[in-house]
Each structure stands twice: as C-alpha cells, then as structure tokens.
Amino acid sequence: MAIKVGVIGYGYWGPNLARNFSQIDSTELYYVSDLDSSKTDQVKKIYPNVKTSADYKDILNDPDVDAIVIAVPVAKHFEIAKEGLLHGKNVLIEKPMTASVKEAEELVELAKSKNKVLMVDHTFEYELAIDRVKEIIESGELGDIFYFRADWLNLGLLQPDVNVIWDLATHIVSIISYVSKMEPVSLSANASAFIRGEIPEVANIHLKYPKGITAYIMVSWLEPRKTRSITIAGSKKMLVYDLTNEEEKIKIYDKGVDLAGNIDNVRELKVNYRYGDIYSPNVKKVEPLSSMCSHFADCIADKKEPRSSGLSGLNVVRILEASQKSLDNGGKEVILKDD
User: Fold this and answer.
1) Domain ranges of the chain
2) pTM score > 0.90 for this model?
3) Residue 235 and residue 271: Cα distance in Å, rounded?
4) What would the mean pLDDT of 203-219 be, rounded to a whole number?
C-alpha cells in the first residue's frame, strides 16, 4: 500500500515536493495545505483527487496520513515537525532543519522516542554527481585533501526570515559533511548587508577540520551569474564540481605541486608544477529531489535511518548557529570540538 503524504506549504519548494511524491510508485500525494487559497486552488487543478486545506492541522489530524513534508519558513519548522511527530507522523523537513540547535536536538529525541522517521531535505546529498565525488575521495585518487573551496552565488532569492548563510550555506555544509565524513572543529564567518541593512546577503565562512583540512565558503544573493561550484584540492589531483555544467559536472585535474630536494632547507627545495590530463567521469542524469523523496518512502517502509537523518540535520544546524555566533561577535573564531 502506498505511503500517504501530506505537504505543508505550497510556495516556492512545496510544488516540487508535491510533484515528486505524486510520481513515485510507493507514495500517494494525499493532502496539501497552504494559507494562500490561490495556492490550494492550483493544487486542485493539477491534482483533482488531492485533499486541500488552509490549516495544516487538518493534515495532522487525518489518520490516513502516514507522513508530512514541511516546506514553510524556517521559523515554523520546529513547531510543525514537533506536532507531526506527536501525532504519529513520519516527518520530512525542508532545509535547514530548524532555527536552532536546541530545537533540532528536541526533534531528534522525539522522533527516536516515537520510532518515526525524521529526515531533512538536503537535496544535493542525493545528487549522483555528489555520490561520485564521494567515491573519488574515498578511493584516494585525489590523495590527501588540502582544502575545499565553494561558491554558491546567484541573484536572489532574498529570504524574509533568514540570512544568506542559513539559506545557501546549508547546501555546501551538508555536501562537505557527506563526501568527507568530517565535521569541523572550528569556524569563523563574516557577512555584509547591502540591501536591507539587517539581513546579510553576502557571506564568507572559514571552516577548520581535523588534520589541517580547511573549507572556504562564499555565498551570495547579489551575484549576476548563478554559480554552484566546489573545488577540492588534493596532494595528487584536484577536482571541481560544477552543478551548472549539465554535461561535465565533475572534472578531475592531474595538476599539483611536487617538491624535491632537502625538505629541511627551503632554499634547496625544488618546486615542480605538474600539469597533467583533465577528464570528466560520466554521471547518469537523475533528478536528486526524486531520489530524496524515494529514499524517504523507503526509510518509512523499511524502518531504517535516512541518509540525511535528523542527526545529520542537527549537525548542519550546529554549524549554521556557530556561524551566526561568529557574525554576532565580529567574525571571532568559534570552537565546535577538540581537534
């Protein structure tokens, strides 16, 4: 029997989630709620058999609903997710999971006590190209990782309730955590607000990981060109992931710096710059959002822990909250754990 899904919020991301759950064999798009009647009118036109309501509590109180999908502003994530779990629903939350670590921790514990699936929509963790990047790192082809550099830039969408870090950096943080299996030990952040004065539209985050590995992240809502790229520099090779390049999302560069001579004497060192081949591995094209939605359904059916679990969402929120703390303290370094 198909898992009956209720989508709460039909604004920017909700329609994409609803579309995917309506297309997956193992799920049935059963209910959609939104405060805006024009949104629910759209739902009725596209999905005439789907129930609609202006009040999300109608979804929670419907005994036929197996799972809820939350696609509303971040400030409401915790409240609705908690209510959903208390009503015995499995819960999928749009990123970021919550607005604070405290809220995320409570949801993780509640889901555990209720034996329900709690999952976060970290969409890019379900991108086949990101899976391939993870495989390449684990194979050792890049050698020892030196650093990550990520640019997630575009014009808009300016969010009313969160700054650019909470919006765009969420993607990068979840990707780096997923492909590297590492969590940062400290970070520092700085940001600027040019348009509205109080909510930064441009930000930089510097994360420090174990073994001296670092990550440099830039996010912006004020860029003329859409950029979605991550560079991974290794001791053997370098990799560039470019989401906007549909044909060659991954490029591996046999480039680097090799040293020869007496390493104890800088003046006697010989520096050789390596310029080798560049190649792009073939990656099958599959919509990551579809894979994510299918995974959610599989986790409910098989009672298994999701890839982007509540704990994964908590770890990302912990980094976002620490970034906010750094911003509030003039870019001061925030310690997350001992190296």
Assistant:
1) 3-124+288-308, 125-283+320-335
2) yes
3) 14
4) 97
